[in-house]
Amino acid sequence: MTRRVIVVGGGPAGMMVGGTAGIRGLDVLLIEKNSSLGRKLLLTGKGRCNFTNDTSLQELINNIPINGRFLYSAFTKFSNKDLIRFFNDLGVETKVERGGRVFPKSDRASDILHALERYLRSNNVKIMRGEVKRILRDNSKVIGVTLSEGRFIPSDSVIIATGGLSYPETGSTGDGYRFAKELGHTIVTPKPSLVPLEIEEPWVADLQGLTLKNVAIKVIDHSEREIYNDFGEMLFTHFGVSGPVILSASSHMRGIDRNRYRIIIDLKPGLSDEELDRRIQKDFAKYSRRYFANSLDELLPRSLIPVVVELSGIRRDKYVNQISREERRRLVRLLKNLSITVSRFRPIEEAIVTSGGVNVNEINPSTMESKIVKGLFFAGEVIDVDGYTGGFNLQIAFSTGYVAGNSC
Ligand SMILES: Cc1cc2nc3c(=O)[nH]c(=O)nc-3n(C[C@H](O)[C@H](O)[C@H](O)COP(=O)(O)OP(=O)(O)OC[C@H]3O[C@@H](n4cnc5c(N)ncnc54)[C@H](O)[C@@H]3O)c2cc1C
Fold first, then answer.
1. What CATH class does 196-345 carry?
2. Quick count: other Cβ atoms within 10 Å of Cβ 278?
3. Which of 49, 53, 56, 333 sits at a 20 to 30 Å CA gap from 74?
4. How confident is the model at residue 297 (pLDDT cuts 50, 70, 90)?
5. b vs e for 89-117, b when ≥16 Cβ sit within 10 Å of the residue's Cβ?
6. Ligand 1 pocket, residue 163 CB under 6 Å
7. What b/e string do you get for 171-201 counting C-beta neighbours within 10 Å, with b at 16 or more?
8. Alpha carbon of 113 to ligand 1 centroid (Å)
């Protein structure tokens, strides 16, 4: 009799498991609680889906700060190059952007989703809409699942691909942690990663809605050590800061509850202190008869001006031609070192990924099978692995999905 495999969750990991197990001729049933598959996938990369990174195997692992080594075998079996080829073979043309980020050439995450749906269809995977409530075991072997409506569906293997706890409206509500725990696994406490930051300084709220496209940031820890730097886009919100460089920075802020982190923003990274000083002198010469507060229009976005004026300590109604050299130097220092203090992470629901999950010591890294319950497998974000931004998290989902699909 054909072996029956149940995949719980129709995100990128679950779809990869389903199609890959289907190729092997198994009877595969994929159960997804949403009315459509891959809801979170459609949001990725701002709707463009940065699905992997064009880098070396070692760099893939280096970009996964939590348990990257656990993925060595999965990445060897199904690498970033394999993933790009996989989508190319399914008719999706791809392109590489800054920092090795790989996207579909169309810039449409839906092209990735549709390719995965074709992969499922062509490998005869049955898709069922339903919510798995429990996974059942008999002694040390999995025997099937029950749905929320009460029905029992027997199977020889079950793959948990239910994702993490972030963006719960997409369906990722942490069910897999509960299933794994009920079956005897330990769960490393889920925490937000790649998450917006709340900021102490009250003036930050005045900048709500402001996007800064080309800034350099440094993260400084409580011992004044620089632990991270980056260049790119950030934005201000009603609670603090977000945007690509901030999300990446957040995943370096370990133990946020114990440690105090500051972010130093260089608003003019393209200019040295001297160059910026010369630039300001030029503006000041042009607007010598204006008040200081009205002299920065060409240098800064409008909403930033009152904040910079206030923080500079220079009177807003001082005539520009009366500003001293020392005051101007202070202004330069401020623009190159705008400091904000992180008070806390935003809640896990707002995080891009969940750090924590099923303990990797309890999973066989070359099959993704549970070491505790036979026939139970894991794939994707439910496992205690998480990476930086740049396509690493989806690569984790696809590589672990591929391995689980070939082993179940
Ligand atoms: C806004 C945003 C942007 C992102 N951008 C990127 C990016 O560009 N690149 C990148 O690499 N990563 C990105 N990520 C992260 C990436 O989306 C996740 O790491 C990835 O989706 C994890 O895949 P998964 O299949 O493990 O879980 P999910 O995608 O969370 O899928 C899990 C599925 O399981 C279903 N499910 C849950 N419980 C049950 C149940 N009891 N019964 C049935 N079904 C269930 C859910 O409905 C869901 O469809 C982004 C995340 C967010 C939120």
1. mainly alpha
2. 12
3. 49
4. very high
5. ebebebeeeeebbbbbeeebbebbbebbb
6. yes
7. bbbbbbbebbeebebebbebbbbbbbbbbee
8. 12
| CB of 380 shorter than 6 A to ligand 1 | yes
Domain boundaries, given as residue ranges, for the chain: 4-191+352-407, 196-345
| Separation of alpha carbons 272 and 263, rounded Å | 19
* d(CA 171, ligand 1 centre) in Å: 8
Record the tokens describing residue 33, joined without a space: 């609680």
**Is the Cβ–Cβ distance between 212 and 267 less than 8 Å?**
yes
Q: How far is the CA of 52 from the centre of ligand 1 (A)?
A: 15
Atom of ligand 1 nearest to the CA of 45: 8
Residue given tokens 């440690």 in the structure block: 259
Q: How far is the CA of 343 from the centre of ligand 1 (A)?
A: 27
Is the pLDDT score of 40 beyond 90?
yes
Whether the CB of 391 sits within 6 Å of ligand 1: yes
Dig out the tokens for 119 from the structure: 């992969």
* Residue 115 in this model has a pLDDT that exceeds 80: yes
CATH number for the segment(s) 4-191+352-407 = 3.50.50.60
Residue of 44, 50, 42 whose CA lies nearest to 102? 50
| Contact indicator for 234, 243 with CB cutoff of 8 Å | yes
Q: 299 CA distance to ligand 1 centroid (A)?
A: 41
Residue 114 alpha carbon to ligand 1 centre in Å = 16
Tell me the Cα Rg of the chain.
25
Distance of CA 26 from the midpoint of ligand 1 (Å)? 25
User: What's the mean pLDDT in 139-160?
Assistant: 97
Residue 66's DSSP bridge partners are 386
Nearest CA to ligand 1 atom 5: 44
- Of 394, 395, 402, the one to substitute when testing ligand 1's pocket (max ligand atoms within 8 A of C-beta) is 394
Tell me the CA end-to-end span of the chain in Å, nearest whole number: 15
Structure tokens at 98: 């800054």
Longest Cα separation, the chain: 90
Closest atom of ligand 1 to 14 CA is 25
Other Cβ atoms within 10 Å of 261 Cβ, number? 22
The pTM of the full predicted model, rounded to 2 decimals, is 0.93
Three-state secondary-structure class, residue 135: strand
- pLDDT tens for 52-101 read 999 999 999 999 988 999 999 999 999 999 999 999 999 999 999 989 99
